[in-house]
Description:
By secondary structure, chain A is an alpha/beta fold. Chain A has helices at 3-13, 28-35, 47-61, 73-87, 114-118, 134-146, 159-163, 188-199, 210-215, 218-228, 259-267, 319-328, 336-352, 362-372, 385-393, 413-423, 435-440, 444-450, 466-475, 491-497, 508-520, and strands spanning 18-21, 40-43, 65-69, 92-98, 124-127, 152-158, 204-208, 232-234, 249-252, 270-274, 294-299, 313-316, 378-381, 400-402, 429-434, 455-461, 501-505, 525-530.
Amino acid sequence: MNGAELLVKSLLDEKISYVFGYPGVSICPFFDALIESPIKSILLRNEQDCGHAASGYARVNNTVGVCAVSSGPGATNLITAIATAFADSIPLVCITGQVPTEHIGSDMFQEADIIGSAESFVKYSYLVRDAKELPRIVKEAFYIASTGRKGPVLIDLPIDIQMTEGLSYTPVPDVSLRTYKPTVKGHAVQIKKVLSVLKNAKRPILCVGGGVILSGAEEEVIKFAESLHIPVVSTMMGIGVIPSDNPLYMGMVGKFGKKYANRAMNESDVLIMIGARVADRAVSQPDLITKDKVLVHIDVDPAEIGKNAGPNIPIVGDAKAVFEELNKSLPDKDFSEWLDQLTRYSKTREMKMQGTAKYVDPNEFVRILSEKLDDNAVYVSDVGQNQIYSCNNYIVKHGKFLTSGGMGTMGYSLPAAIGASVADLNRQIVCVIGDGAMQMVLSELSSAKYLNANIKIFVMNNRCLGMIREFQHMHYDNRYTMVDLQHLPDYEQIAKAFDLQYVRIRKNEETVSVLDGILSLNGPVLTEVDVDDDAFTAN
Amino acid sequence: MKKIYSVWVENRFGVLSKVAALFARRSYNIDSLTVGETQDKTVSSMTIVSSGTTHTLEQIEKQLNKKLDVIKVRTYAEDKAILREVILIKIKYVSAERRELMEICEFLKADIVDTSNTHMVITLCDTPERVDNLISMLRKFNIVELTRTGTLAMPKCSEAD
C-alpha cells in the first residue's frame, strides 16, 4: 500500500467515519485513498469551515473530529479553525497536504510553513518525514488530541510521503510518550482540603466551565451540588452542564452574563471553579477574586491554575475523576438557606426583564425557540449579539449548546452545525447567527443543502454588525463606523439561489405560530428574524 | 527577578523554535539561551535564563512543562548551581596598552588566544558575574568585537546524585 492508504488504515483503526475536507493537489492522494474506504469525505466550501465542521462533529459525538485540506492557502485558511478549537479545547486531528519533501523550504507553489504558522494554536504538530511512521504518528495524534486538556493536533503530510509505495501496515502498540503524561486523578490531600473548607463554608458556589463537558463530568458535578444544595453558575462554555430547570442553576456569569449570577459568585465565600480558565470574559477582575473568598480551582491543565487568579486550593485533575472522589465523602452540610436567598433575588431580576415590542425581541425569541426544541437538540450559536442573546436565554435541557467561546470566531456556527448534523443525522439542530457572520459563511448553505442537513438556520437580521455597534454606542458616544452592512442581500433570494426553504419572522407575535412549522420541516431551512438594531444586549 | 531553567527536550528539529516561540508568544524575556546535546543523543539540554515577576517566572515553568517536546524542566536559584559562560573579545591596541591588557587577563584568569601587532582576542570561561567584570575592565580599550555564550548551568553536587 502507499502512504495515503496507510494513513487511511490508521484512521480506520481510530474508528473514524468522516473527514471534513477541501482538496488541492498536495492532498489528492489522501482523498483518492478514501474512495475505497468506509470513511466518508465531506466537502465544504472553505478550508476554515472544514475545521469548524470537524469541531461541531467532535462536540456532538464526544470524539475527535478530523479535517483534511491542501497545502499553502488551504492550510493557512484552516488556521482560524485550529485556533478556535484550541481556545475551546476541542479535540481535532487536522491533516494538511504539503509540497514534496525535497522542495520544502524552497517557496514552491502553494508552499506554506503551516507547522510554524500554527505552532501557538496546536497542542502538537507533526511533519511526516517517513511514510512508515504514519501509523505511530496517527495513533499519537489521536491520543494527544483526546486526553488531558483536549485540543487540535496537526499532521503536515508532504505529497511524496502520501505516494510512497510498498508500505505494509503493522499495528502499533499503545502510546507511551515520555514527555506527556496528563494528570487525571486529583491529589487526595487537595481533595480533603476542599471537603474541610466546605465544612466551614456558608455561601459556597460552583462555577462550571467547558472542561466539565469535555470530561463528561456533568452527572458527577450535579450530584455533588444537589447533595449539598450548592448553587451553580456557568461560564459561556459551561452552558449545557446543568439544565435550566434545575433550581440550583443561576445562569451564566461574566461581562455578558446574568447580574444575579455574578452577584451570587461575588457574594460567595467559597468558589469552586471547574474546568474554567478564570478568563476576562467570565471574571472581570480575576486577580481580585480571592480577596474575600476561598478559590478552589480544578483543571486538568496545570498551566491554567494560577494563570489568571491564584487559587487557595489548586487541584490538577480530570473533573470527572475529581468529583467521583469528592462525592465519596461528602460533608454533612446543607446550603439551602443561601440557595433560597439567591433564588429569591434571581426571581426579582427575571421579572424586571422586558422585551421591546418593535421587531422580534431576540431574547424572547431564543427563549421560545429553545423551549420548543427537542430535549436533545443541538443549539449552535454564532458570535456577536446573537451569542449573548443565546447564552442568556437558551433553556438548557439535555441537548448541546455549541459556540466559539474563547476565540469568538464569527462564522463558526453554520459549519459547526453541519458537522453536528453529520454526527447525528436524526438530531434536531439549530444555528442562530447574525447577518454579519451569515455573509461570511453564505457558501456553506450549499453544503447544508447537498447534505440535506437537518439544520434550522435563524439569521438574526438587524442590518448591521450589532455587537460592535453596541460597543460604539457604549464607548464611542454613538460614533458609528464600519458597522452598517449596506446593500444587504435579500435573504429570500439567497434561499432561492441555494434551493432552501425560507421563512421570515417580522414580529414577536409571529414567533410562536411560525416556529412549530419551521421545526417540523425536513432538511435545511433559512429563517430570517427581523431584529431591532437598537436591541442591545446589556441587561 | 532572575531564574534559570534547565530544560531537557527531545532532540528533534523544530524544538528550539517551539520553545523560543513560546517565550515570544507570551512576552516572556529570554536573557540568554544555550542549547546542546546531552550524554543521551535523543535529549538536548537548553539552559534558559529569564527575568520577570514571580508570577511570570512560575508561568514560564508551567508553560514549558506543557510543551509536548519538553521532557523535564528544572529551575534553581543561582547559588544552588554551577554557572558558566564563555566570552570572546577582540581588542585593537597600541603597544603602550599591551602590558595593562596582559595584567587584566592574568588577574581575571582570562587567556589571550590570538594576537597580531595591532589586535588580540581574549577569552574567559567563568561565572556570568566574572565575565561581566572582564567586560567592564576592558571597556576603556578599543573593543572591535565581542561575543559571549549564554549561561550553562548544572546543580551543585549533592549526596542525592
